[in-house]
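Holo model, magnesium ion. Inputs:
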Amino acid sequence: MASEANEPGSESGKRSDDRRGAARGTRAGCWSPQEGGASTPLSLAPRSPQPAAILGQPPRPGRRVRALEELDLAAKRVFIRADLNVPLDAAGCITDATRIVATLPTIRYVLEHGGLPIVASHLGRPKGGPAPELSLRPVADYLRRALDVPVELAPNCVGDAVESLIARQRPGQVVVLENLRFHPEEEKNDPVFAERLARLADVYVDDAFGAAHRAHASTAGMARFFRDKAAGFLLRREVDVLQRLLVAPARPFVAVLGGAKVSDKIGVLENLLGRVQAFCIGGAMAYTFLCAQGKPVGRSRVEADKVDLAAATLARAAARGVRIRLPVDHLAADRPQAGATTRVVGADDFPANLLGVDIGPQTIDAFAQEIAAARTALWNGPMGIFEVDVFSRGTMAIAHALAESSGTTVVGGGDSVAALARAGLQGAVTHVSTGGGASLEFLEGRALPGLVALEDAAPAEHAAVPR
Ligand code: ADP
Ligand code: MG
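Output:
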C-alpha cells in the first residue's frame, strides 16, 4: 500500500498496520450521517447497568475499571477521549466515518443522562503545532448532524478560551475540542498539559480504543486527576470481545494471519500459540515461514532476519500440536502491480523469477475449510497484495469464509478491515475492531496504557485532585 504518512486517518508508529482508516478512499465526496455506507453501525447498543466484569488484562489486585453506567453524569462536564481520527480527502471531507459512528452511543448516553460531553481526539499527524487542514471541524460538523444537538468546536483543546466556552454550555449540548496533537505535549504525555486537559471536566470517559496502546496525555496521563472515570461503550466492547479470544474462546479456534510483515504479527502468533487449534498463514509473512521450511519462494517478499524466528515458531507449534497451515499454492506474478503476468504455482515449484502476490486456489479451499470448522475465527492481515484487484481473490475469499461462519468471527487490522469493507461484509462478522495497533498489542497480551489508566486508583492518589 502506498505510504500514507501525514494523512489524517493514519497513525504514526512502528507498525505497518498503524496506517489505519478502514475502506479509505472507497467513497468520494462529503458525507452526511444519513448516507450510511462504510459507516455501517457496529453493534454497540448500551447495555443494562452492570459492572464491567471483563475489561482488559485483569486489573491489578484491588483495582477495577468502571463501566459508564456506574457514573453519575447529571450536570457533569464529561471529557470523552474518542478516536475520531477519520480519513479526509483533499477537500477536507470525511471519506469514512466508521470511527465517529462507533463512538456515538457513548456520546448519546452522556447526553441522555444529563451530562455535557466534551469530545476530544487527535486527527492525523500535525507537526507539533496547529495545522488548519487537520482541524476537527469536519468531525464537529458530522456530530452536529448525527446527534441533532448544538455542537461547538472549541478554538483549542486547553486554555482560558476553551474553559470559558465550556462554562457557557448547558447539558444537552456538545463541545468538540480542537485536535489534541496541535500540542506536542499530548504525545509526550506531559503532566502539565494533562492537568490542563483534566481541568476542563468533572468526569473522564475513555472510548478511544484505537489510541489505547499509546501513553499520551489524553489517553493515559490525565486519567489520574479524576475520581470518576470509566470506559465508554466502544472501548468496553472492543476489550470484551478481544479478551474473550484470549480467555475463553469457543473451540476450535483458528487464527488467520497475513499481511506485510512477520515482525508485526509474531507477538500475536506467540501469544495465541497456547490458545488456538490452528493458524492459517498467508500474505507476505507466509514466505518467511516457507523459507524456514526450505521451500522455494522466488522473489517473494521475505524478512531474512526473521527466518530463524519463523523456524522456532514452527517447531514450538509442532511441539504443542497446533496446526500451522502455510500456502500450498500461490498466485505468482512477474511484478507486484496491476497489469502483471500471473500464474498459479505449487509451493514446491516456485519459479525463481516470480514473486507471490496472493494465495492460490487450493490454499483458499484449505483455509476456508479451517474457518468453516472453527467456532472462533480471528483474521488479521490480507492474504495478498489485495489493493490490486487481480491479487485480491484470496483475501476476498477469507472475508467471505468468515461471513459464512456461524461461529464467533473477529477482524482486526486496518488493511484487513478495509478489505472486509470492500467485500461489503463488515456487518457479516461478529466484531470489527476499530483499532489496528491497539488490537494487535492487546492480543499480544500487553497491558494497554489507556486501560491501565482507567483502573480505579487507591483513594490516596486522589488527594492532590483539585475537585
Ligand atoms: P493489517 O493492516 O490488516 O494488519 P498489514 O498492514 O499487516 O495488514 O498488511 C497489509 C499489507 O500487506 C498490504 O499493503 C498488502 O499489500 C501487503 N501484502 C500482503 N500480501 C503481500 C505479498 N504477498 N507481498 C507483498 N505485500 C503483501
Ligand atoms: Mg496495515
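The first helix runs from residue 98 to 112. The two ends are 48 Å apart (CA to CA).
Archived with the compound record.
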